[in-house]
Design a protein that fits this description.
Layout lengths: L2 H8 L1 H6 L3 H26 L8 H26 L1 H4 L7 H4 L15 H6 L1 H9 L3 H32 L1
Helix pairs in contact: 3-9, 4-8, 8-9
């Protein structure tokens, strides 16, 4: 059972750490989130030019992918908020009563963090023309959708049914 399920079902982090629960979760979550990008950058740099694409085409594709990815990150920080994005609704009831956001990128897609945010990983792979990084970016993008359908969506059904 993962830590978020323990928090959602039994408020485990809150019981252990009180009001510092979200801080503790952030200290776990944010390095793992950043580590995903840092590791991919390292892989992309170490396998640079292993993808047989012309540099102008690869850079152009990367820039096209960066536009929605950066807009998503900006929208998350500006409208959604980092705490809410870090599953604040597992920790604080007030997030459960907030409506879904429909500003910024969320006007286009309610699940923009998964749909567009992960395009950043694809862009890193393309900027470096790295085949292994492209494969890893693809795997991570698929995996986050598996996480959504198997963990986050069922959690949201519980959270918003209770709200």
């Amino acid at each position: 059972m993962d830590l978020l399920r323990l928090q959602l079902g039994w408020a485990t982090l809150t019981r252990l750490f009180g009001k510092a629960d979200l801080l503790i979760w952030g200290l776990i979550f944010l390095p793992l989130f950043a580590g995903r990008v840092i590791t991919l950058v390292g892989l992309a740099r170490s396998t640079q030019d292993s993808l047989a694409l012309a540099r102008p085409f690869a850079v152009g594709m990367a820039l096209l992918l960066l536009i929605p990815a950066v807009y998503t990150l900006w929208s998350v920080l500006r409208y959604f908020g980092l705490t809410r994005a870090m599953v604040g609704d597992h920790f604080r009831v007030r997030y459960r009563h907030m409506p879904l956001d429909n500003r910024g990128i969320f006007k286009i897609n309610g699940n923009a963090m998964y749909a567009f945010g992960f395009l950043l990983l694809w862009a890193i792979a393309l900027l470096n023309r790295s085949l292994p990084a492209l494969v890893v970016a693809g795997f991570q993008h698929i995996y986050i959708w598996v996480h959504y359908y198997c963990t986050e969506k069922p959690d949201m059904e519980i959270i918003f049914r209770e709200a």
